[in-house]
Design brief:
Elements (H helix, E strand, L loop, with lengths): L2 E5 L10 H15 L3 E6 L9 E3 L5 H15 L4 E4 L12 E5 L3 H10 L4 H19 L3 E4 L2 H6 L5 E2 L19 E6 L7 H8 L5 E6 L9 E5 L3 H10 L2 E4 L8 H8 L4 E3 L5 H5 L4 E2 L5 H10 L1 H15 L4 H16 L1
Parallel strand pairs: 1-2, 1-4, 2-3, 4-5, 5-6, 6-7, 8-9, 8-11, 9-10, 11-12, 12-13
Helix pairs in contact: 1-12, 3-4, 6-10, 8-11
């Protein structure tokens, strides 16, 4: 049985985003049981699998020195990581699962005035990431959009979905629209607010982003995971206006909860939604949203197709594809 290391150093007790991806990946691989897992984490108590505490700081030290040492010490056959900064020396078979090129993150940090530490980290990342990916044994990407943005050979691997996102008991007569905002300029909440101003419908906005006061728009702030699930389930439609997503988790979560999706984003959003939702331009958003709100048959069809689409994104599938890739590399 091959020994597979997993760099799960982003996992934290309340972590979201890539932290959840790492946690679910470890859990799915452990349940699959095809390889002996060796997990490296800053919070090893979060895992049942064999795990080792990582105390290396900063992250670059772990990536460039700690990872190759761990690879040799634990006699690994391969190691899965989500970092685009692989160790430049030390050998080993590394699988990188990349959700977006770091160029967008670096540009956003620069535009929003990130601190000195982050700017220095971005400079290192900018210098290393292309060389790093070229020495990977295999590069996986979270979407075709990310794969096509790279100049190395890569294979798309969609992540799974947290099973908490499910239809549940849908209340009758749903008449509010749901949107998630943040301080990230990529979210383009302004486009959503312009569309909402053209409609006579109640709107609930969750997340860290808060726009100007607007009739019928209620800003909820940050919500718990369970509150988020209930907001999806109770909405007549979910509106996503993100300009850039390496993987569109919000549209997938909404579809999994049985909520019609109307989205304006590019990059990965159209491929995640497929034919199970409506993808349009920001200028078309109000018109398309009005169609969903006024046409019960259309809304019902989008709910059905959304549930079918979301059901394809399972962690069992992720574990099988990673295990197959490892077997290809170590045979």
């Amino acid at each position: 049985m091959a020994r597979l290391g997993v760099d799960a150093t982003s996992v934290a007790p309340e972590g979201k985003g890539i932290a959840r991806v790492q946690r679910h990946t470890v859990e799915a691989l452990r349940q699959l049981g095809r390889h002996e897992l060796v997990v490296f984490a800053r919070h090893p108590d979060q895992f049942v699998a064999q795990s080792h505490k990582v105390d290396w700081r900063p992250a670059l030290a772990w990536e460039q020195v700690g990872l190759p040492r761990a690879y040799r010490r634990h006699r690994l056959d391969a190691l899965l990581t989500w970092s685009e900064r692989l160790p430049l020396a030390g050998g080993g078979r590394f699988l990188v699962w990349l959700f977006e090129p770091p160029t967008h993150r670096i540009a956003t940090n620069r535009a929003t005035g990130a601190g000195a530490y982050q700017r220095a980290s971005d400079l290192v990342t900018g210098a290393l990431w292309r060389r790093s990916l070229r020495r990977a044994a295999l590069v996986l990407t979270g979407s075709d959009a990310t794969r096509d943005a790279l100049d190395v050979h890569a294979r798309t691997l969609y992540p799974g979905l947290d099973p908490r996102f499910s239809p549940g008991n849908t209340p009758a007569g749903r008449r509010y629209v749901f949107h998630i905002a943040s301080g990230d300029p990529r979210e383009d909440t302004d486009a959503a607010l312009r569309a909402f101003a053209q409609l006579d419908v109640s709107v609930r906005v969750a997340g860290g982003g808060v726009g100007p006061p607007q009739p019928n728009v209620e800003y909820l702030g940050r919500v718990s995971d369970q509150e988020l699930v209930e907001l999806y389930r109770g909405a007549a439609a979910h509106v996503d206006t993100s300009r850039y997503e390496g993987f569109g988790y919000q549209v997938l979560e909404a579809m999994a909860c049985g909520t019609p999706v109307v989205a304006t984003g590019g990059t990965s959003i159209p491929e995640i939604v497929g034919d199970a939702g409506i993808v349009c331009t920001p200028a078309q958003l109000a018109e398309e949203l009005r169609r969903v709100l006024d046409d019960d048959a259309l809304a019902a069809d989008l709910r059905r197709r959304g549930l079918e689409r979301a059901a394809q994104f399972t962690w069992d599938r992720v574990a099988s594809e990673i295990a197959d890739a490892v077997d290809e590399l170590v045979r």
